[in-house]
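hey so u asked for the seq, here:
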Amino acid sequence: MRARLRALRAPSLRVQLAGALTVVTLLSTAIIFVVVYRGTGDRLRSEIDQEVSADARELARHLTYSGARTPKGLLAVGNRYVNTRPFKAGSTLLLVLVPGAGTATNQPEVFARRPPDEGESAAEQTEEDKLSGNLIRAPIGYSTVPLQDAGELRVAKVPVHTPHGLTATVGAGEPLSSVEHAQRGVSRAFILAALLGLGGALIASVLIASRISRPLRRMAEVATRVDGGDLDPRMQHDGSEGHEVSVLTDSFNHMLDRLSEAFEGQRAFVADASHELRTPLTVIRGQMEVLASQRNPSQEEVRRVSRVVHAEIARVTRLVEDLLLLAKSEQGEFLRTEPVDLPSFVNELWDGMSLIADRRFELGSVPVGVLDADPDRLAQALRNLLANAIAHTDEETGIVRLTIEPAPGQRVRFVVQDDGPGIPVDQRERVFRRFHRTDSARDRASGGTGLGLAIVRAIADAHGGVVSAGASPEGGASIVLELPGFTAARAPAPPVGVRG
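ran it, structure tokens below
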């Protein structure tokens, strides 16, 4: 119940994607707004600086070459110049400061000492006079001065030195209200654009998130059905959702195929194992019932039942051991590899196997070299192959052949051949499955469990090798076990003759 409540509280993938895209859109809009807002202000301030600087230099040149010889004359020239350019909203404020003569400006009320304007209090007039003083005290160069009626002014001051030894300071100022208006316009435009963009981002993000999460929803639906026990559903992909989705779909379907095969193999394995165990247990129970039904069984009957029971117990024991071996083959510590001297290993193995049955045993030449393998597991695999060949050949005349040859890529092939009935083409892959038999009656008679070749494949897989079945030159079976890790020596081993 808690897990369901947490799942309900957790936002869906579509909500998360939509939220992420919306946040990205907002952050991008905010960054662009800051860049454009500040860029607009900086560009307009730069243009204002250029304008007031040009006006101040022009006024300075006019005073320098005016020919005035006294400070009052210089101030008069300045008055005439600024009076031709009255100050209005959006225009340039001009001023001339002549030491010992006074001040000239195209807005006299900024510097005049007079009673407050109509509707203007004494305090407001005092503040205006204070700000006017700030304008006079502004340093040479650029500065920003707040004024009561005009707002902030961007002021550029330039010193003047005439040929007659007179000095003065001229300045030009322009209100920064245009910058504020432009930035307010940018703000309004971006607010409107942000609202429209946010709405569009929400719609687009929901659509995109729905499209992206659609394969995951389909996967969740298929997984739910699989969890319910139905292994048939598969994800469908029409190719329009991108390469990644196609790869995900193929991988998911392949996983389900493997899972279905594993379940089917498990069911078949359980059924086969149950059948294999049921047969000896049935025999044991039947023999015990026969023995129990006799009031005074003879010693010969007791020995017969004992032999049968022991044989069936041995068969069950082999079956359990083989099953345990196959289970271990799927673990990481199944192999303990070491360098194996191939000629001595094969000769020792061959000497033991050629004595267990009366067959025509043939061993070809053994290449000299070292094989990196688990000697116990390799011997077990070869014994299973040779035992399988012995079981399917006739006594005395049957051929059991072992050929060993190097293969490309530092590999070696062990080829076991016989002249028995062979393996049908359609069963050459299935013979390596657990409990598969091509001749069940024969295998049962010989005590086989149907796991010998499955163990060979497990050992081959653990070594990184392969095993395959084919036909021998005599028409019997030919099984090839190929393993990696072989390092050949320089001198070849001498061939070993026919042994029978």
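The domain at 243-328 is CATH 1.10.287.130 (Helix Hairpins). Residues 1-8, 440-447 have pLDDT under 50 and may be disordered.
lmk if thats what u needed
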